[in-house]
């Protein structure tokens, strides 16, 4: 039996099934390409904000190593991020941004498992 929890997540009697997902990208920007990277990211973020299921973005720069960056986005569902990642706009916008990065980047998708403080 599936029901909706107060936080909007679906759950079953056996275990909760989160509705939202968060994408985490660990990146290293090539020296001298920081401004281009941010410009391309801003274009990607603006387009993603209009894509169905997109809930938000955040870009962070490492305080100890300015070449390292963290990019996160949150989505209503795994299906919405899959649709975004296969959208032609995503491909066109990510390609120049990735040109600013070293090849050791990593992307992971996580189910959001919010819990009320107790």
Structure summary:
The protein has three helices and seven strands; from the N terminus they run E-E-E-E-H-E-E-H-H-E.
Keywords:
118 residues, alpha+beta, four-stranded antiparallel sheet, three-stranded antiparallel sheet, 7 strands, disordered N terminus
- Principal-axes shape call: globular
Most strands sheet: 4 strands, antiparallel
Q: Decide which structural class fits the backbone.
A: alpha+beta
- The stretches of 5 or more residues where confidence is low (pLDDT under 50) are 1-14
Would you mind describing this structure in some detail?
With 118 residues, the protein is α+β, with helices and mostly antiparallel strands. It has helices at residues 34-49, 78-85, 88-98, and strands spanning 2-4, 10-12, 16-17, 21-28, 54-61, 68-75, 106-111. The strands form two sheets. Strands 5-6-4-7 form a four-stranded antiparallel beta sheet. Strand 5 and strand 6 (68-75) form a beta hairpin. Helix 1 runs antiparallel to helix 3 (88-98).
